[in-house]
Amino acid sequence: MNAKNIIDKWLNYVNEKQVEPLLALYNDEAIVIPTFSNRILNSPEKIKDYFVKLASREEISIAMHNNTLIEQNMNNNLYSISGIYCWRFAVDGELLSFEARFSYLIDTNNARPILHHHSSQIPRMI
């Protein structure tokens, strides 16, 4: 499986609220710097808690801005993928959008390929 396919699976699992298959993409040693938390998630339990809470949001969805996707081959099976995606979910009954930039470090030879995932909301320009 190539790195882009792994990201596509990740997006589908978020959109379908399939937390367990989503978590199976993360390596046991993975680090997640999440979009909607001020914590660094450095254990499978912390990562699971974050995605369970996120999946409980009403009308959650995520869409990739495909024209922003940058894929770099770091060495044979290690890839960096960066870009922009848009989260949507209801807050107090109102559907809101959150643009975020992201980066993943993916080992395509690993059954649990996501080694690192950073996502942060895009700040407003001054």
What does this protein look like?
By secondary structure, the chain is α+β, with helices and mostly antiparallel strands. Helix content is 25%, strand content 43%. The protein has 3 helices and 6 strands; from the N terminus they run ααβαβββββ. The protein has helices spanning 3-15, 19-24, 44-55; strands at 26-33, 61-64, 70-75, 78-91, 94-107, 114-121. Strands 1, 2, 3, 4, 5 and 6 form a 6-stranded mixed sheet that branches. Strand 4 and strand 5 form a beta hairpin.
Rg, please?
14 Å
Level of helix content?
Answer: 10-25%
- Tertiary shape: globular
- The proportion of strand residues reads 35-45%
The tally of helices reads 3
- How do the helices and strands follow one another from N- to C-terminus? HHEHEEEEE
Distance between the amino and carboxyl termini: 41 Å
For the structure shown, list the relevant keywords.
single chain; 126 residues; alpha+beta; six-stranded mixed β-sheet; 3 helices; 6 strands; 25% helix; globular
Describe how the helices and strands are arranged.
Elements: H1 3-15, H2 19-24, E1 26-33, H3 44-55, E2 61-64, E3 70-75, E4 78-91, E5 94-107, E6 114-121
Parallel strand pairs: 1-6
Antiparallel strand pairs: 2-4, 3-4, 4-5, 5-6
Describe the structure concisely.
This protein has 126 residues and is of the alpha+beta class.
